[in-house]
Automatic annotation (TrEMBL):
Cross-referenced InterPro entries: YkvI-like (IPR038728)
Location of the region described as Disordered in the Swiss-Prot/TrEMBL record: 343-372
Superkingdom of the source species: Bacteria
Keyword annotations of the record: Membrane, Transmembrane, Transmembrane helix
Keyword Transmembrane helix in record: yes
Membrane-spanning ranges: 12-30, 36-54, 85-109, 115-132, 144-163, 183-202, 214-236, 256-282, 294-315
Protein name: Membrane protein
Organism field: Paenibacillus stellifer
Entry keyword annotation includes tRNA processing: no
Length: 372
């Protein structure tokens, strides 16, 4: 039972780290999938496969090399010097992405709650600072509550869309976009999100007692991400092209479910933004603590202040500018992860690990009968 709970915590944290501002609001899914029409279903399935494979491999490898932060992980992938440069670049990306998270919180408060944009930013910063005092355990517990609720509401949106006149469009939606660009999208999307998720998944994997919860957590987490991608695409396709005008398209769909459900959905969108923001800030401060030797309590307010300043530029404009660019640059990182063996040179499993891990091949990370 304890191992099962740990597996679910890992899976929910994986999902919660990926499902951030752009994902939960729908903007990210529009950018990378829905706008490509009928190709989106296949590209979502391909992206889900990458999340299962590479997310699981990253956590297993991080635990085997004893990586305490994503800088340790990148040094293993690229070597000490290049890895440090990649980590510094990742740090810049994370600060930019967290600025988008804050901007998304501000957009929710302004567009759907009728409150000031700055109110959403300030409440997110204060709440994140308080939760970060609990460390990785606070992140695990928060995602264990938020993610199941988010998936339940995704089911409600699917059921509500079934009777919509445009429910069939997710398979037939016409697009003028190039098929080549459409098929590049899942590679860019997965690379970008996994490059960001390493800030949390690497230290989380380091604290796991064994690899089996990481394996199943990666599989369940990847399936959950794929399900939520498909649910959002299915719902938004039925409302195309009018839904393109909304800053938070999934929020506009939620209003069709009634005032209570829509309010709960907006709250969960905010909590998903909040959970990803907290997780990324945790990873950034952990890496900066290694680089500078300043305490996390001193680093966290400085990082949050930077994110607050950059979040003043708006939400969708930042999303459309930074996400594709960061995804392309993260593609190099993902390719390197694919090419790196799961088993570090000279490492060997102990008796406990050998019972559940008979090989180090990437394709064998999925548990089978031989692992019983």
């Amino acid at each position: 039972m304890r191992q099962t709970l740990r597996t679910l915590q890992i899976a929910f944290t994986y999902i919660g780290t990926i499902v951030g501002a752009g994902f939960a609001t729908g903007q990210e899914i529009l950018q990378f999938f829905t706008q490509y029409g009928r190709w989106a279903v296949l590209t979502i399935l391909l992206s889900m496969g990458f999340f299962i494979w590479l997310g699981t491999k990253m956590m297993i490898l991080a635990r085997r090399i004893g990586a305490e932060s994503y800088e340790d992980f990148n040094r293993h992938l690229f070597g000490r010097n290049t890895g440090s440069v990649i980590s510094l670049f990742t740090l810049v990306i994370l600060i930019g992405v967290n600025s988008i998270m804050l901007a998304g919180a501000g957009a929710i408060f302004q567009e759907h709650l009728g409150l000031h944009y700055q109110t959403g930013l300030i409440l997110t910063v204060i709440g994140s600072y308080l939760l970060l005092k609990r460390g990785i355990s606070g992140i695990l517990q928060m995602n264990s509550i938020v993610v199941p609720l988010m998936m339940t509401l995704s089911l409600l949106i699917i059921f509500n869309t079934v009777g919509h006149p445009g429910a069939h469009r997710f398979m037939t939606l016409v697009t003028e976009r190039s098929p080549v660009v459409a098929w590049m999208s899942p590679f860019l999307y997965t690379a970008f999100n996994l490059g960001m998720a390493q800030a949390v998944l690497v230290p989380m994997a380091r604290q796991s007692d064994s690899e089996r919860p990481l394996i199943w957590g990666g599989i369940i987490g990847g399936l959950g991400i794929g399900f939520m991608l498909m649910a959002a695409h299915y719902a938004m396709s039925a409302h195309m092209p009018g839904i393109l005008q909304f800053e938070i398209p999934m929020g506009s769909i939620a209003f069709g479910l009634g005032p209570l459900v829509s309010l709960v959905y907006l709250l969960l969108i905010f909590l998903e933004i909040f959970s990803t923001f907290v997780a990324d800030i945790y990873g950034v401060t952990l890496q900066l603590e290694q680089r500078t030797r300043f305490s996390r309590s001193a680093i966290t307010p400085v990082v949050m202040l930077l994110c607050y300043i950059f979040s003043q530029f708006g939400f969708s404009s930042l999303l459309s500018l930074f996400y594709p660019m960061f995804g392309a640059l993260s593609l190099v990182w993902a390719i390197k992860l694919i090419l790196t063996p799961s088993q570090p040179p000279g490492a060997s499993d102990g008796p406990e690990e050998a019972a559940s891990h008979s090989t180090s091949s990437v394709k064998d990370v999925v548990p089978g009968p031989a692992r019983k």
